[in-house]
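As agreed, record passed on underneath.
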Amino acid sequence: MPIIGIGASAGGLEAIREMLSAAELPTGMAYVIVQHLDPNHESMLAELLNRQTNLDVQQVSGGEKVEADNVYIIPPGHGLELKNGVLTLTEFEQPRGLRRPIDDFFESLAYDWTVNAACVILSGTGADGAIGLRAVKECGGVCLAQEPVTARYDGMPLAAVGTGLVDYVKRPAEMIDTLSDFFSRRSNSVGDEEISRVVSDHIDDVCNSLSELIGHDFSDYKRSTLERRVERRMQVLGIDDPQAYLQRVRKDEDECDALFRDLLINVTRFFRDNEHFDQLMTDVIKPLVAESRSTGEIRVWVAGCSSGEEAYSIAMLLHEKMRETATRPLVQIFATDIDESMLAIAREGRYPSASLTDIPEELRDRYTIGHGVDFQISPIIRDMIRFSSHSLIKDPPFAKIDLLSCRNLLIYFGERLQKSVLPLMHYSIRPGGYLFLGPSETVGRYEDLFAPIDARSRIFKRRPGSIRHPIDLPMGNNRSRRQSSGSQPGYSGKKDWQEEEVTRRIADRYAPASVLIDADGNVLTSYGRLSRYLEFPTGEGRQVSVLNLARGDLRRVLPSLMRDASSKDRRVVANGIEIKSEFGTQKVDLIADPVMDGHVLLIFRDREPFKQEYDEDLLDLNQADDQVQVLEDELRSTRNRLRTTVEELETANEELKSSNEEMMSMNEELQSTNEELSTVNDELKSKVDELSVANSDLSNFFASTALPLV
C-alpha cells in the first residue's frame, strides 16, 4: 500500500481540498497531511475536509496504524514520524521559525516506506519539504509538486521544482489520478522477470547513449541501481517497452537530463551523520591544523560534492579550528562534481532556511547570513572553496591532498570501478593523509593502502609506500594533445631554440661578464654586465676594438694577454688588475681563453667587492632630514588613525550584526506565525461560508412560511 505525504502551508487548505475531493474510492493509498499549524489554536482541518472528500479524515493522536483510503492530519504543536507503518507524535526541538515538520515527516516516510512512499508539495511560503523530497527520491519514491501558477503562495512548489528531483508538476485535482497510475504500473512491473530481463539487456545501450549525449559513462555503475533507475523513469513516463524508452532518451534531451539526474541522486545535507563529523574534527581537522604550522598549507578534495553542503561543512570545521588556534595556513578545498546545475547552487552558497537546523548553533551564528526564507554561507567560508566540474573516473586526480572526502559515492560504483578508484585515491592523498567515506562504504580489499582511524565513522589514513600494482591514471584529453604535439614537424627545432635561449639567459644573468674578440681585438659578442670594465653598453658590436673600450690598467694589460693566449693557444690569466671608474675601484682577474679561428674569449672575474669612492666635500644627509623618515612618520600617524577607525567600525559592525540577528529571529517567528494564522484564517473563512449558507437557508425558510409572529 502506498503512503502519500502531503506538505502544505499558507494557502494549502484550498489545494488540499481540491486534491482530496477528486478521490474516488477505493484509491488503495493512504494520505498523511503535514501543515504549519498555530500551536495555540485547535485545528478544524479534519472537520472541514470531512465534508469535501469520500475518504475518512482524522487528526492524529499518536499510535495510529496507517490504512488505505484514510487521511491523517498532523495536530497543532507536534511533529510527526512514521515508524513501521505507525504514526508517532514528536516534540519540536527547534524554536518557531526553524521548525521543519514537512521535511522531518518526509524523511521518516522515505526510510520507513521506501519505494512505496510519495511526497506532494502544495501551496506555501518558504522551502519546507525541499530537503525531505530528496530522501524520498533517494529511497526510490515518487515526488510531486503543485504547478506554481495555481498555488496561492508559490514558495514551496518553486523550491521543490528547483531541486530538479520532482517527477510530476500537476494541478492538485490531477494528483491522485497521477499517483494511482504510477503505483499501478509499478505494482504490475514488480516481479515481472520478463520486463526486468529486457531492461537489463538494454542497459548498455542506454549507458552508451548517455555517454554520447552527456559525456559521462555510467556503464561501470552498479547494475542493479541502473536497472532500478531506468525502470523507474519508464514508470514515470508510462512506457512499457525498453526499446521505446531507449529511443526516447536518444531523441528527448529533457528525458536524457532527467535520467542523468536520477542516476546521480544529489542527496546531501550539512553535517550529514553529525557524529561522524565530530569524529572528523577530533581525528583529522585538529592534526591537520597543527601540522600546518610547519607546512603552511592544507589541501582538501571533496569528490562528488553535489550542491556543496559537505564541502562547506568541512570548511567551517577547518576555519573554526584555525580561529581557536590563531593559525593561518593557506587552505585550498577543491569541491568537484559532474552535475553543473548542482555546482551552480554550490557556488552561490544559498540554501533554504530549513537547512539551518543541520548546522551547529555556534557555527550557524558565525558562518551564515540570513535572507528571510533562505540563507547564504558567509564569504570567508565561500572563499576557501573552489567548485569545479570534474569526473573522478575520467579526469586527472588532484595531488598531495591532505584530506579526501568521498562520501556516499562509492556505493553506486560497481566492483570494477571501485577497484580503479580506490588506488587512484591512494595516489592522490599524500603519505599520512586521510580518507573520509560514507557510513555504508569501506576500502574493502585495499586495507594495505588505507589504515582505519575510526572504522565506525569511516575515517582512514593513507599507508606509506607506493602501490604494488600499476594504476591507470585518467588523463582526460591531455594525453592526446601531448602526443599530437610531439609528432608535429619542427618540434625538435623548437626544442633547440629553447635550449639556445636558456644558454643565452644563463650567460647574461648568472655567468661572469665576458666578451668575444677576433684576432684584431674587435668585439664580436658580449655577455653580462660590462660597464665596470669597458665603456660601452652590453650587446653585439662590430669593428669596435676592445683596447679602445678598456678602463684604467686594463688597457695596459690587454695587448700582452691577447698575444700570449693566441700564440700559446692556452688560457692566460692576469691577476689583481685594478679598474678605476668615476664611482670607485674594482679589482678583477682577467682570463683570456683562445677559441677557434684566432678568436679569444675574455672573462672578467671579480676578485674583491666593488669599493665605492666619495668626494671629500660631500656632506652626509642628516637622518632627520631623510624623506623616508618623514614618510615613515606620516605612515605611523596614518596607521594609528586607521586603527582607531577600524576599531570603531568593528564595534559598529558587531552592534549591527547583533541587531540583524535579532531582526532575523523576529522575522522568522513572524513568518511562521503568519503562515499559521493564514491556515487558521482559511479554516475560519470556510466555517463562515458554511454559516452564511445555513443563515441564508434559514432566512429563506422563514420568508416562505409567511407565518404571523407574535
Remarks:
- Residues 477-495, 538-542 have pLDDT under 50 and may be disordered.
- The first helix runs from residue 12 to 21.
- Residues 23 and 393 are 48 Å apart (CA to CA).
- The longest strand covers residues 584-594.
